[in-house]
Amino acid sequence: MQGPALIAGGGIAGLTLALALARRGVTSRLFERAPVLEEAGAGVQLSPNAGRVLEGLGLGAALDAVATRPEGVSICDALTGSRLKRVTLGASAERRWGAPYRVVHRADLQAALAEAVAAAGMTEILLGTEIRAVEETASGVAIETVTDKGSEPVEGAWLAGCDGLRSVVRRAVKLPTAVAGAGLKAWRAVLPASAVPSAFDMREVTVWLGPKAHLVLYPVRKGREANVVIIGDDRVAGPADVAERWAAPARELIAATPTWTPWTLHDRSPDARLKRGRIALLGDAAHAALPSLAQGAAFAIEDAVVLARLVAEGGPAPFDAYQEARLMRVAKLQMNSRRQIRIDHLSGAAAAARNAALRLAPEAALIRGLDWIYGWRDVPLSRT
Q1: The pairing of beta strand 279-281 with beta strand 158-161
Q2: How far, in Å, are 24, 96, 280, 320 from residue 16 at the CA level?
Q3: Active-site residue, selected from the candidate residues 101, 218, 322, 374
Q4: pLDDT per residue over 114-158, tens digit each?
Q5: Residue 225 — φ and ψ, nearest 5°?
Q6: Looking at the domain assignment, is residue 241 inside a domain?
Q7: Residue 213 lies in a domain
Q8: Domains in the chain: how many in total?
Q9: Considering the chain, what percentage of its residues have pLDDT values greater than 90?
Q10: Is the pTM higher than 0.85?
Q11: How far is it, in rounded angstroms, from Cα 117 to Cα 200?
């Protein structure tokens, strides 16, 4: 394929793809509508499946400079504050899955990716540039870009849609663009570690499960700050109302947090495809999922490294191969994410049964249940 790759979107998916292509000697042009590279949201959980990819792209040291490696995940009953189960991470996770489990501020991750892309020198990043139209041509893909100076046609060998939930590129792939309201809202905040009640261990990821809601807290910025997310019914006024019956530490945490950013949650049912011709979709543009398995960023990173490898290998149908490699895995994530949030938000007798099951479950069994996510590697599909 002649000409540069075109990448729509400068978030985690787009920057990872640009870097993965650069590492394999493929030039690209990345178009981002925002005037500066700036991620919305706060924290990101980089499980080993994503961490292994980023280390392979040379970002291990950059990540460790800004990220934290939590020692475990503690799952608690929100109504009582009692711990139901602890899953060990740390060194044992790295031994099992071949890379550490990290938590990081989203802006720090994006900055590390952007710096690596700039240093690689094979990507032109065009900020304040919106893609308005997309079409395939006889030799590649043509797009129309719009800036404050007007519109301009651009051609490339192929196009990657990394432009998020309301992707423009998705329309060119002829897939439904509507997103389903989940009836849920996330309230996000970052606060100083000193403001976190002592019941929350800043060396771990802590998950509190309550009726129709849950809370996640973990360290960012090398433990100087805490990322907090509360997910609950979108008809509720705010975090204090979500947690009004929860144990005191959660209410204290909410009271200590002056500002929350609300974020309405959406997802999509799995699609039948991820590409059309020389146009491929990655990340939320391809497979928006609820955040209950904390894999939105990780699966976007997976998408990027697979697509970059297949294009660089120069096979006869790299986009077909990309779809084959990713379609069933991302569909499994979407469906399991829906299932997990239903489990997390149980109430009454169903919640009591869930809590009892968690207390009785061997930690080893819970860890085995994560192997399909965390143990993933970019291994070419067998053709035998």
Answers
A1: parallel
A2: 13, 25, 15, 20
A3: 218
A4: 999 999 999 999 999 999 999 999 999 999 999 999 999 999 999
A5: -135, 165
A6: no
A7: no
A8: 1
A9: 93
A10: yes
A11: 36
Dihedral, 350, 355, 361, 363 alpha carbons, nearest 10? 140
Residues with Cβ within 8 Å of 287's Cβ and at least 6 positions away in sequence, in order, are 268, 270, 271, 274, 299, 330, 331, 333, 334
Q: Residues 224-247: pLDDT tens digits? A: 999 999 999 999 999 999 999 999
Token pair listed for 229: 């997310």
218 belongs to the catalytic site? yes
Pairing between strand 72-77 and 205-210? parallel
Q: Which has more confidence, 177 or 381?
A: 177
Neighbour order of strands in the sheet with 28-32: 123-127, 28-32, 5-8, 158-161, 279-281, 275-276
Distance between CA atoms of residues 65 and 102, nearest Å = 11
Q: What is the DSSP letter of 212?
A: T
Could you give the CA distance from residue 296 to residue 300 in angstroms, rounded to a whole number?
Answer: 6
Does 141 map to a domain? yes
Q: Give me the DSSP letters along 327-365.
A: HHHHHHHHHHHHHHHHHHT--HHHHHHHHHHHHHS-HHH
Residue 219 counted as domain residue: no
Task: Please report, for the domain that includes residue 143, its CATH number.
Answer: 3.50.50.60
The domain containing residue 106 runs over which residues? 5-179+267-374
